[in-house]
Amino acid sequence: MATANGSSAALEEVEALRQQLESLQTTLRKKEAELETVAPYNRTYGRTMVATVLESDSQGLSLVGKTIRVGGWVKTGREAGAGAFAFLEVNDGSCFQNIQVMVEKAVAEEVGGLKSLTPTSTCVLIEGVLAETPEGTKQKVELKATKVVHLGSTDPAEYPLAKKKQSFEFLREKAHLRPRTNTIGAVARIRNALAYATHRFFQEQGFLYVHTPIVTASDCEGAGEMFQVTTLLSKVDEEPEVPPPSPEELAALRSQVAAQGEAVKAAKTAAAANKEDKEAAAKSKAEVGTLLKLKEQLTKAEEAARNAGGLPRTADGKVDYSKDFFSKPSYLTVSGQLNGEYYACALSNIYTFGPTFRAENSHTARHLAEFWMIEPEMAFCDLADDMQCAEDYVRFCCRHILDNCRPDLEFINGMIDKGAIARLEQVANSPFKRVSYTEAVELLEGVVASGEKKFEYPVSWGIDLQSEHERYLTEEIFKQPIIVYNYPKEIKAFYMRLNDDGKTVAAMDVLVPKVGELVGGSQREDRLDVLTQRIAESGMPMEPYAAYLDLRKYGTVPHSGFGLGFERLILFATGLDNIRDVIPFPRWPGNAAY
Amino acid sequence: MATANGSSAALEEVEALRQQLESLQTTLRKKEAELETVAPYNRTYGRTMVATVLESDSQGLSLVGKTIRVGGWVKTGREAGAGAFAFLEVNDGSCFQNIQVMVEKAVAEEVGGLKSLTPTSTCVLIEGVLAETPEGTKQKVELKATKVVHLGSTDPAEYPLAKKKQSFEFLREKAHLRPRTNTIGAVARIRNALAYATHRFFQEQGFLYVHTPIVTASDCEGAGEMFQVTTLLSKVDEEPEVPPPSPEELAALRSQVAAQGEAVKAAKTAAAANKEDKEAAAKSKAEVGTLLKLKEQLTKAEEAARNAGGLPRTADGKVDYSKDFFSKPSYLTVSGQLNGEYYACALSNIYTFGPTFRAENSHTARHLAEFWMIEPEMAFCDLADDMQCAEDYVRFCCRHILDNCRPDLEFINGMIDKGAIARLEQVANSPFKRVSYTEAVELLEGVVASGEKKFEYPVSWGIDLQSEHERYLTEEIFKQPIIVYNYPKEIKAFYMRLNDDGKTVAAMDVLVPKVGELVGGSQREDRLDVLTQRIAESGMPMEPYAAYLDLRKYGTVPHSGFGLGFERLILFATGLDNIRDVIPFPRWPGNAAY
């Protein structure tokens, strides 16, 4: 069909404009930095961020001779010149680099001498004059202190991270202090950059950010792996409002009710025998009143007996969720996809970015009980467009951190994973290969047949690809990111669109070196009849999917989406081994401290 | 002190650069729009977003004569010309405006005639030629259909939102379809814009986005209003693995153990009497073995009896949380502040933006059980800088939606709240007044004394300002946003920094017309001794605050922060009355559907 796409001349014009814009932005950024060195909202303390000095175009040289204040935490401090002065490496988190501060003895006098400044994690705000360092020094400038404006001491004998090298395991137990370390600080900046890159990518493409709910009573995904959210347990360990009756008390009450029933019957018979007898009528009425009161007592006692364990129960002994906060069993979400579809089928292109939960009793380095997920969903979008979106998004993120987190990545590349930068550059620069599931299986069968590779799990058409297969495909066979698509319907979810072959669905996974599966997505089944049949075939009840089916009933639209586990992306970007180190406060079985 | 601030000439240069940049950006945007009309990731379907046409600089005129495809949901459709053609108002969510599509009878033939296109919420993808509309028409262009590429029918007899006007209450019950309505669609776009404005504001100021945890076992805030997160309830309604014993069985087991204890004693005595008697020794050993087995049986039976209600219990009858997923009672977060402080006291300036929870049994139009909150936290920041940050942030948000959501705001202004745009403009353009708590109380006492105003709650120094007081201050006395600061310490949290007067703390609330309190913040108590005393005074245990106290122990820093309820900001921006209508899937007591 004819679209309004432009000529190559117009394309070139736009490209030129883009370059002009970029260079103008850079100029503006530099000018702004020179104009105002004090950090926003640090005006009272007059602090200049370390990044403003060291990451400026001149690496601080344009500020030489100026008086500024630098504040942060001492990474390392040492006395020199036989106690005449001290060098402090100060880090404020604004960039990976520390700024070197030189403090003479006299300047430190007022705050207890040089020794009070040097311990690791001491907080300082130091006013000084920026000076050029001798040729050959790592940094071009250092601060010569004239005044210690703030001192927050740290006793090195007590500070738990005083030692240079700490294991990641140990740092996890000090999650409130670990962002002061090189690695966790770098991860925090990279995580921030990837989060902002996510928003920028989707916003610039016209997607709407939708907040899908965290707590949900919809039980579409099977409650097995879900956390329950409740207010019922808070009362379990309290004294009950109505003390539960003993079995004897209950039995006694029941006999009373039975006896009173007899009394009522007798009184009624007497009253019926002589309708004129007002006294008999009154007695009958009184006996009925007593019976009602007794029955009410019994009902309450039975309820109290049922609730004896502290949990409200229905008459059949099950937990009475009508008494819970949401009047139904409610859970923490495992995916915002269904909610995302509701919004995409009204507002076209949307994305979610929020926390997601799994109550799996998993202690591996790859699983968290709480993690963040990005789930875009697009109307009028098929699998090909879905794959393109996933590819563009991942590559945008890689490019973004290469451009914005260079010093952090260089540290990571040097200390943690020698391949980190090369991997990011490869992903940012090369298109992802598309490989159908069928082709992928044939390739794997080939290397098995030739004896080139042995897998723990055997390979044949129909299997769910294991991590070992996925990583072999991306790391060994293709040596680059790939997208595997069109999976057998048996191994994929009911909502994925059935292909015309009747045996595969329009699903795709993005596989990348180091991590394996990074993205999983699909075109959604938009045909009401096919979807209904797929739900029925999978043996699930239809009722919980009423709203989901409504989308196919009222103005159905071809649509697609995918999910990306945010921490997986950070693992990929940093090469860290344990997912618990790429989220500020990790949660896993037995661990929800802080 | 001397900072490196620039001269006014440099200021002017930067301002000029900024303007140049902005105009260049606008030019680029327009060129790009002309160049490529097909939406990203809608390429297979070749769809052009309605915003690309109607919100372009020429309002679509530059595309007249081109063939494009437009897809979305029919807002209204009507046949005209005695059934010769139909007009469809099509909305795709990319902007508030609908595009008008004119379909001739012959074009609709293939898809069942014009009647199949006109029902509200029908999904269509229509190829056509963009044509100029007659002078005086609301929009400059319409699409003359040449082909219906996709049709997703809607049966108007069944579609629940077929009627024009629906109450907000009714729409809440159809949360999966309500984004197709004008108001909820506009709110979704405004919400998206405010979320992106939030990220842009803080990122451009160099703040790091930190994901604070959702599930937490830290009970710092008192568990009264918190939701509990658990995996214990999932087993309550299942058959127990070990059936609980009856009291008789338990009693019988206990007697058996006691009897066996006697038997062991007797056998040991016999064996001791004759140490040579191997048979007696063997018997004694056997009796001990039997006793151990019986005791194990008893322990298991007692445990089964304790767990009879399905919940694991400790020996004292309390819930045994060591068996819960996180090995401790765990809750949904009510604030990320403490976690944010941990990161600010390492990385300087950070912000959170995530879901937050309250298990309050509140059914008002102002409360949600699940809502989103923004919480910045800044090192080397006092209350003055904190107030400035809150003001700049709120004003940036208002400016951003005025610039980016004009048609949505105009609809809101016309249909929902006549003052919405004026309110946003006032906030965007005028600095917020600072008023100390003491002054504020004096002003309120003044209007009460003069008889100008009666309040439900009496006013005097020391009271917690009520909503009626807050709104009177901002709406009647100042008629603009204000910041009230330095509150009595008795009515504020323990962690707020004690002022030198000993009776107020460095707290602040931003009050705005229509909503009242929008932001609450404070400088945090950074002195270990004062903080310890404040915790002790408030009668709380010290132990849960160990990590929080560590921040003051190791390199303490003056720092401040605030919290803004995101839905409050949207209420303020849209003038909607009920907070349940400004979040996609609202949660309140009894409601967690979808």
TrEMBL record, chains A, B:
Catalytic reactions on record: tRNA(Asn) + L-asparagine + ATP = L-asparaginyl-tRNA(Asn) + AMP + diphosphate + H(+)
All copies of domain WHEP-TRS, residue ranges: 249-312
Keywords per UniProt: Aminoacyl-tRNA synthetase, ATP-binding, Coiled coil, Ligase, Nucleotide-binding, Protein biosynthesis
Residue ranges of coiled coil: 7-34
Superkingdom as given in the UniProt entry: Eukaryota
Alphabetical list of SUPFAM superfamilies matching this protein: Class II aaRS and biotin synthetases, Nucleic acid-binding proteins
PROSITE patterns xref list: AA_TRNA_LIGASE_II, WHEP_TRS_2
A Pfam family recorded for this sequence: tRNA_anti-codon
EC number: 6.1.1.22
Every Aminoacyl-transfer RNA synthetases class-II family profile domain range: 189-584
GO molecular function list: asparagine-tRNA ligase activity; ATP binding; nucleic acid binding
GO cellular component term of the entry, any: mitochondrion
Gene Ontology annotations of biological process type: asparaginyl-tRNA aminoacylation
Family: Belongs to the class-II aminoacyl-tRNA synthetase family.
Protein name: asparagine--tRNA ligase
Lineage, uppermost ranks: Eukaryota, Viridiplantae, Chlorophyta, core chlorophytes, Trebouxiophyceae
